Queue: 2 jobs
Job 1
Amino acid sequence: MKKILLITTLLILLVACSPNQVNGDAASLYKTEDPAQISLDLPDELTSKEETHIEIDVHQAVAEISASLWKQGEENDSVNLDITKMENETYLMKHTFREDGIYYLQIRAETSESKIMPTKRLIVGDLSKEEQELLEQESDHTDHDGHDHSDHH
Amino acid sequence: MKKKSLYKTIWRWHFYAGILIAPFLIILAISGGIYLFKPQIEAFLYQNYYEVEVRDEKTAPEQQINAVQDEYPDATVTRYRPGETDDRSAEVRVNLDGESYTIFVDPYTNDMIGQLNDKNRFIDRVEEFHGELMLGTFGDRIVELAACWTLILVITGLFIWFPRGKRKLFGTILPRLNKKKRIFFRDMHAVTGFWLSLAIIFLVLTGLLWSGFWGTKVQTLATNLGIGYPPSIWVGDTPESTVQTKDIADVPWSAQTMPVPESDQQQGFIPLSMNEVVRIADEENIYPTYEVIYPSSPEGVYTLSVFPPKAQDEATMHIDQYTGAILADYRYDHYQPLGKLMAWGITVHKGLEYGLANQIGGLIVCIGIITIVFSGIIMWWKRKPDKHLGAPVAPSVRTSRRLIILLIVFGLLFPLVGISIIVVFLLEWLIIRRIPTLKQIFQIEES
């Protein structure tokens, strides 16, 4: 009798203490996606009035791709950029920025499985005081939130 | 063990389990009965927050969210719910001073209609009472234990109810209403119990899916075996953004839960606007009552989540916050068989799947449970002698090999029950047997 109780106790503890961990590859047992990824290759320092080359790599066969660019605060005046396909399945854009400032470059790309629309913020040349402040405000806001949050713990 | 003593042993278990579990069953039945009518109750309570006057065109989601941020500059936005119809307000969930608020916005004028501190939501508190007695994890375990013991009550109850000898309609499946009071209460208890036994087992098993211990274990096991819900819906991590951290711009974190590294990177990818996320949701035909959960870290994702009345309309979608790529798209159709069954069980448990009929059915079971509990207590009270609890005197369960095996199997299937049975045995062996008064109260036989 005591033996049975002991074995039961041990078995129950074994089940009760088994880990509650979902396997890392569990998602592969269900419906999976094949999301397009993107990398943009461009110079670290961008300057205006000089042709800039931007290379796009989507890592997958691309069905459709387009790019638009606008300057901070001029969202409604965006321009579409010409894209040329290169031999190694990457795409090239050439653009000459008219003036220094904060720009936003949005790529829209479609593969057979996936659609992406990433936006990259570009810093061209030297920023004006206002533009610098604008970016710093964002950073300040970030810091502020960070501290605010930790206060409650 | 002889048939007669087996009957008495099972009755004894039914008796003690019943007395212990009765208060919890009452709490669960009442809170559950209220929760069933959540849609009607919330529609009534928040009517002024929900309804807006229909105008020409709704503003962009981002404008609505900005309006909230202007009004509450110290708040961090955590969720956005666009609103499913033309006359429904949009909802922006924010964290403010450590508390969660829902801000209702008129999607045509961007005016704030009202704010609701989420901890004051009546139905959420009812749910908390139902699920964890408002005691957090400890309460969750108690509710789980009570639910598992309810299964034992139903099974032992059916055994006791099972007609022996001559089969009679009345007293078995129909109550005898014109007999003595004692017979009346016995039939209220046993006949009602018989009729509702399947429904109670269903409610217990589906309800257990929410429980922190058994539920999490079952969900984890099912997800890992590929037969349940895909990861991230109940258990498991959400996917992460495919963009490398070094390519991300340092931007304000609207839904921040951790400090941002001091990178100060001005150039880089910026998160998608809510306008784009909502456009994706519409393109992908997500059920319109969905809400969008903001990423909680720079590597995180936007999650679209919707659990409508019918399980078939459920959806959970994770979107890369920088590229807008759909990283995971889980609909009811993508749940594996056990996941589908659980999803359906959950919506039926909540009274949602089949509309008003489902709610009324649930309410009948709740009232039935209350009837069973009170009639059981009354029967005991009328019979109870002064000197002891009035439990049926029976040989210990340890004298029946079959019952021991049953208990062991049950204890393994529901580990909390297993642990509680061990505790009961230890209590009996170490304390009750050694103190004469307790021994008398609990009517322990010498073995």
Note: The radius of gyration of chain A is 26 Å.
Job 2
Amino acid sequence: MVPEVNLVVAVVVVKRTGYSLVGLLLCGVAQATVLPEERADVLYHSYQGGGVTIQGPSILVRKQSSANTSVVANYYVDMVTSASIDVVTTASKYEEQRKEKSLGIDYLHGKNKMSLSYKVSKENDYYARSANVDISQDMFGDLTTVTLGFSRGWDVVGKRNDSSFAKDTNRRNYRIGLSQIISKNTIMGASFETITDEGFLNNPYRTVRYVDTGVSRGYSYQPEVYPNTHTSNALSFRAKYYLPYRAALRAEVRFYQDDWGVVGQNLEIGYTHPLNDRWILDGHIRTYRQSKADFYSDLFPGQDAQNFLARDKELSTFSNLTLGFGVSYTLLQGGWHFIDRGSINLAYDLIQFDFQDFRDLRNGGTVGNEPLYHYNANVIQFFVSIWY
Amino acid sequence: MMRYLCLLVIALCLNACSSLEPWVKPYERAHLADPIMSFSPDPVSSAYTSHVYDAREGARGAGGESGGGCGCS
């Protein structure tokens, strides 16, 4: 199914927000563009890996409330059962739920679009709120879209079985994006985002281990200690190319660094292949690698070995490889009552994690020479979408 | 750094006010309008995928999603 040409501007505008406040004030352009599609999605997600199972629904509904205003709401749940390696080596298995609700509005004015949203995430030991604003503008004959965005987050970190424990974390995200039509078959995008966090950034349950010759196993644990600020920069580029026989190739690369010493890169290549008007197949491969944080160690030489201490495997040196596959089936192509069309979708990703300085303490070995940790994660998404 | 960024944005915006002939005409964008060419054809799925990686990797940001914290890692 190839959409009509007059949808082109819509898709370009919707998928690549772009804008500048100065541009809005100086130019005051007033050509019609479009809002995101009216649709509803019901998704079931499942993540299983490393002793952790996380599953639940996500429901997203978007509705146009006027000619230039669109409202979107999302309800998302993580049902967590965790017996991760951190948990089994230093604590006990636990279950919890995280519920996230968000509400957003997009306002269109000519070639400018403003998006506002507010999000709340609740767990029994973590409460997070965030407000987001993104402003975009199309320019250069709608070939280019520029986006500026800002988010402000207010988190409260709690602790199970300790109602008096409540630590604040404040977050700020600054982002700028550029999307560019290169040719009749190629579109590219670039994005840069700086994120700053301030406050309590530890996991209150996690510990680090250090050499302790006074105990039989040769090591002991103490609570981790993180800096109370964290600033990161990420730069990404992505491109998509339309193949002559109606299929699409895509590539994305991201470079990351932060003031904790973590440097990371990821690269993804994907291919989308419609079989006919109803079936669409998708495959992708993604690699990621990162260096460790300056204050990370799997085994510190002694208690309070330095001012900051971390043994979070997400701050260690590691890499992962994702192999993913998806299939989509279009329903109700002719419409039904208020529904224009629908789709049923299934996606599966296998993620293989390999840690280079995080050791698996469950399988013996001399202190500091235990086998390195690795695990596979299976990620499943099943969702139904309708457009109306 | 921020000063240069602001200057760049202002320059882009001033350019936007002038008439520039697009080298890909609107009637030539049928392929780009095909849903398979969207960077995020299913926002509910894209948001979840970003969340999975954010929770399992040290890197964050520039992934097309807006901010928001959680105790997920």
Note: The first helix of chain B runs from residue 2 to 17.
